[in-house]
Design a protein that fits this description.
Shape: globular
Largest sheet: 11 strands, mixed
Strand content: 5-15%
Number of strands: 11
Number of helices: 16
CATH class of one domain: Alpha Beta
CATH topology of one domain: Amidase signature (AS) enzymes
CATH superfamily of one domain: Amidase signature (AS) domain
Strand order of the largest sheet: 1-3-2-4-6-5-10-11-9-7-8
Length: 487
């Protein structure tokens, strides 16, 4: 059965089609693998019975020659996507008893395509964090901690999603990315993930953090697997006013293009920062050389307002979070701290229901939106955001994609970054693309001296995921990254 874990999602899909494997056989293998990784604390809610039931339906369709695009493919869901009849917590105490009576659009698209749900995986509370340490249910441990003598972060906020794929306990997982929450954890866990263009995937049914930034995306081992997953997850949704009415291209076909002739790749000088690992710099240079060898033209470019991206993000995102999280008051659903009057009910419920990082961001957000500081902070941050968007627009008149590091370091030890500012610096390379709403993908491309994975990031033009996938697939082919053999 171990040979299943050496296969990609596309390879398992082909084996199911040829009847070399059955949907039940594949699902049971990943259920067993999920049970073996309990010490990694990946799952908030494990649903093996539901998975078996869905696998049987998939096999029935395959047997009739009516197999769907993802029939029999076991998928884990970040615990930020509402799933009908299945506990959905956002890894927070305040939602630890919330069972939705509706399904998010993205997960509904997956189930309609035949995917099998293994369960809900952990994340930072309300997606606020870069190390998965803010989860009410305890932190996830990076599978690459194995044999290292210390517990490493899987990254955040989609740490559970990246860890479950890296540990061979799921073929794919859904993630969300607000400021890097797909790209940073996949870089730390040695897997692949893409934040698509803002609006490419519906946000309906995804518990909101920052509404102008949140975007769903897939986490898989290979670039091609991510392309297939995104093609299913994408699409216009009338229920989401920010959903883009754009046709979904054939992302998978883009991954098959090996020639990069006439492709211009930009190298932004502002992404080389103080304190950055020399290993990351060398890998970045190597990545540029790989693409050049395949015909790409490498061009040095400048994004002058990049230095302001992180402080801009940490004004806008908390402001939107403070507004979105106002609904959690103990009155309608979720955790409730009973008190004698309404004001005490609100304050007691929120004080006990939210963790310290969520409270910190609510307080920051409320402050920057307050009457005396709105112009000085929030309005100014929005103006700087426009300058950052304009930087990208000007650069993309000269190049097709940008190549950057994904993170400034490899995965760090859990508990080693107690200072919030140090923690926020983990997003320094991922936040700019989020503020501009651009597609960006991280590909595992090398190893650190401590034998930990390092990722490179490809950033594309709005709704040009095709070029992102093409460049990422070529990087993947050159890197020949060896995935973790966890089972």
């Amino acid at each position: 059965m171990n040979e299943i874990f050496n296969l990609s999602l596309l390879e398992v899909k082909e084996a199911l089609k040829k009847h070399d494997l059955s949907a039940l056989e594949v699902t049971n293998a990943f259920i067993e693998a999920s049970e073996k990784i309990k010490k990694l604390n990946v799952y908030n809610t494990f649903t093996p019975e539901k998975a078996i039931e869905m696998a049987k339906l998939s096999q029935s369709r395959i047997d009739k020659g009516q197999g769907k695009l993802l029939d029999g493919i076991p998928v884990a869901v970040k615990d930020l996507f509402c799933t009908e009849g299945v506990l959905t917590t956002a890894s927070s105490k305040i939602l630890n008893n919330f069972i939705p009576n509706y399904e998010s659009t993205v997960t509904n698209n997956l189930w309609e395509a035949g995917a099998v749900m293994l369960g809900k995986v952990s994340c930072d509370e309300f997606a606020m964090g870069s190390s998965n340490e803010t989860s009410y249910f305890g932190n996830v441990i990076n599978p690459w901690s194995k044999g290292k003598g210390k517990k490493l972060t899987p990254g955040g906020s989609s740490g559970g999603s990246a860890a479950v794929v890296a540990s061979n306990a799921a073929l794919a997982a859904t993630g969300t990315d607000t400021g890097g929450s797909i790209r940073q954890p996949v870089a730390f866990c040695g897997v692949t993930g893409i934040k698509p263009t803002y609006g490419r995937c519906s946000r309906w049914g995804i518990i909101a953090f920052a509404s102008s930034l949140d975007q769903a995306g897939p986490i898989t081992k290979t670039v091609s697997d991510s392309a297939l997953m995104l093609s299913v997850m994408s699409g216009y949704d009338q229920k989401d006013s920010t959903s883009a009415n754009e046709e979904t291209p054939d992302f998978l076909a883009s991954c098959m293009e090996n020639s990069l002739n006439n492709v211009k790749v930009g190298i932004p000088k502002e992404y080389q920062i103080n304190g950055m690992s020399s290993e990351i710099i060398k890998l970045w240079e190597k990545g540029a050389k790989w693409l050049q060898d395949r015909g790409a033209q490498i061009i040095d470019v400048s994004l002058p307002h990049t230095n302001y991206a992180l402080p801009t993000y940490y004004v806008i995102a908390p402001a939107e979070a403070s507004s979105n999280l106002a609904r959690y008051d103990g009155v309608r659903y979720g955790f409730r701290k009973s008190k004698d009057n309404l004001d005490e009910l609100y304050s007691s419920t929120r004080a006990e229901g939210f963790g310290s990082e969520v409270q910190r961001r609510i307080l920051i957000g409320t402050y920057v939106l307050s009457a005396g500081y709105y112009d000085a902070y929030y309005r100014k941050a929005q103006k700087v955001r426009n300058l950052i968007i304009n930087d990208f627009s000007e650069v993309f008149n000269k190049v097709d994609v940008l190549l950057t590091p994904t993170t400034p370091t490899a995965a760090f030890e859990l508990g080693s970054q107690q200072d919030p500012i140090s923690m926020y610096m983990n997003d320094v390379f991922t936040v700019p693309a989020s503020l501009a709403g651009l597609p960006a993908m991280s590909v595992p491309s090398g190893m650190s001296q401590e034998a930990l994975p390092l990722g490179l990031q490809v950033i594309g033009k709005p709704f040009d995921e095709e070029n992102v996938f093409k460049i990422a697939a070529n990087l993947e082919d050159e890197a020949k990254f060896s995935f973790l053999n966890y089972n």
